[in-house]
Design a protein that fits this description.
The termini are far apart. This protein is mostly beta strands. Strand 5 and strand 6 form a beta hairpin. Helices cover 0% and strands 53% of the residues. The protein contains no helices and 11 strands.
Length: 118
């Protein structure tokens, strides 16, 4: 059973930065065989995609419209870890951030809270 554990959330002022990490375990094959992504859910809203890899386009990263140009997704296959670098954070970025893995199934982490407030 794939397990995903997120970390790095917290309280940050508008314009600040945070880096989230998600470590995967219980994999049945190498980490690079899994499609990894970040989602978020703001209070009262549906969960939305934040960052993902386009497996059709050589795993090129792509982003939700609200974060494009400010967030960067990356992977360290040796550490079974996917990261989300978040810059120039805005109050609208507040929410619970979830790590997602897909390979003949879908797995979610429990999430990490990000709060952007002055």
């Amino acid at each position: 059973q794939v397990q995903l554990v997120e970390s790095g959330g917290g309280l940050v002022q508008p314009g600040g930065s945070l880096t989230l990490a998600c470590v995967a375990s219980g994999l049945t094959t190498t980490f690079d065989a899994y499609r990894m992504a970040w989602y978020r859910q703001a209070p009262g809203k549906e969960r939305e995609m934040v960052a993902d890899f386009d497996i059709v386009n050589r795993n090129r990263p792509f982003y939700g419209g609200a974060v494009k140009g400010r967030f960067t997704i990356s992977k360290d296959n040796d550490k079974n870890t996917v990261y989300l670098q978040m810059n120039n954070l805005e109050p609208g970025d507040t929410g619970v951030y979830y790590c997602n893995a897909r390979r003949y199934g879908v797995w979610w982490g429990r999430g990490t809270q990000v709060t952007v407030s002055s």
